[in-house]
Write a structure and sequence with these properties.
By secondary structure, the protein is an all-alpha fold. The chain contains 14 helices and no strands.
C-alpha cells in the first residue's frame, strides 16, 4: 500500500535543530546535505513511485522519499548499504539530507531497502522507465545547475544508481542460487565444495552484499562465473534430476556465456 511521507514538513519542537547552538545551526543550513534536502528530497514526487505498490490494504510502505534519496546518496558517495545505514543512524548531516529531525527515527530496515531497489529494477525491466531519473526530470535547468554546484549531484547519477542496482541485484541472485543448490548436495559433495562455497553459505545473500563495495562487483562476478562453471561441470550428471539443479542450470546459461578454447 502506498502512503506519502510528509513528516519532515512538521519539525519536532524537541528535534535536532532545537538542540544546536545558533552558530552550528547556521553551519548546518549552509551544508551540502541541507541543500540536498531542499533541492532533491523535497522535490521527490512520491506519487510517481506508487506504481511499485499494491492498491490492496496491507502494511504501510516505508517513506518513499527517504528510500529514493538514500539510493541517490549511497551510489553518489560510493557507500555500501552498511555504510549508508550507519550514516543514517549516527551522522547528523546525512539525517539532515533525509529530513530526519530527531535521532529516534529510522526510516527503513535493510530488507525494505533491498526490496525497494528490486521493485525499481523490475519496473525498469518491464517498462523501460527509470523512476529515479524522473526525480531529476522534474527539476528545472536552473535547479539542476544549482544542484550540481552545491552538492556535485547531477542527472547522470540516476543512470549510475540504476546500473548499480542491476549489478547488485544480479550478484545477489547468483549467490542466492548457490545457497539453494548447496542445500540439496549430499554430505560428501558439501564437504567436497565447502572451501569454495563457504563465503556464500555462511550468511544470506542479502547479508553478503550488505557490505560489498561497488568497485568489487566486477571481481565478484568473475569469481562467480568460474564457480558456476566448476559446479555445473562437476554436478550436471549426478544432479540432473533435481529441480533445484534445473533452476541452477537455467541461471547458469542465462547469465554466463561459455567460450570454447
Amino acid at each position: 500500500m502506498f502512503r506519502k511521507n510528509t513528516s519532515h514538513l512538521q519539525p519536532s519542537l524537541f528535534g535536532i535543530a532545537s538542540q544546536l547552538l545558533k552558530a552550528k545551526l547556521k553551519k548546518l543550513k549552509k551544508s551540502k546535505e541541507h541543500d540536498f534536502y531542499q533541492l532533491v528530497f523535497c522535490k521527490i514526487n512520491e506519487k510517481d513511485f506508487s506504481v511499485l505498490y499494491s492498491d490492496n490494504s496491507s502494511r504501510p510502505n516505508a517513506p518513499v522519499n527517504s528510500l529514493v534519496a538514500s539510493i541517490i546518496l549511497m551510489y553518489h558517495n560510493n557507500w555500501t548499504t552498511e555504510k549508508l545505514l550507519d550514516r543514517i543512524d549516527f551522522d547528523l548531516l546525512t539525517r539532515t539530507a533525509l529530513g530526519l529531525d530527531t535521532l529516534e527515527q529510522t526510516p527503513f530496515c535493510p530488507a525494505t531497502f533491498f526490496n525497494f531497489q528490486n521493485r525499481l529494477l523490475s519496473h525498469f525491466v518491464a517498462t523501460g522507465q527509470n523512476l529515479i531519473e524522473g526525480v531529476f526530470d522534474s527539476l528545472t535547468q536552473q535547479q539542476l545547475k544549482t544542484l550540481k554546484i552545491k552538492t556535485n549531484i547531477q542527472r547522470s547519477d540516476s543512470f549510475v544508481a540504476m546500473s548499480n542496482i542491476r549489478s547488485y541485484s544480479r550478484t545477489q541472485l547468483l549467490i542466492e542460487m548457490l545457497i539453494r543448490l548447496y542445500r540439496v548436495l549430499s554430505d560428501e559433495d558439501k564437504a567436497r565444495f565447502n572451501d569454495i562455497l563457504a563465503p556464500y553459505i555462511q550468511q544470506s545473500s542479502s547479508q553478503y552484499i550488505y557490505n560489498l563495495q561497488r568497485a568489487s562487483i566486477p571481481h565478484e562476478q568473475e569469481k562467480l562465473d568460474q564457480l558456476y562453471h566448476k559446479l555445473y561441470e562437476a554436478l550436471k550428471e549426478s544432479y540432473k534430476d533435481f529441480e533445484v539443479f534445473s533452476v541452477f542450470e537455467r541461471v547458469y546459461t542465462e547469465h554466463f556465456t561459455i567460450i570454447d578454447d
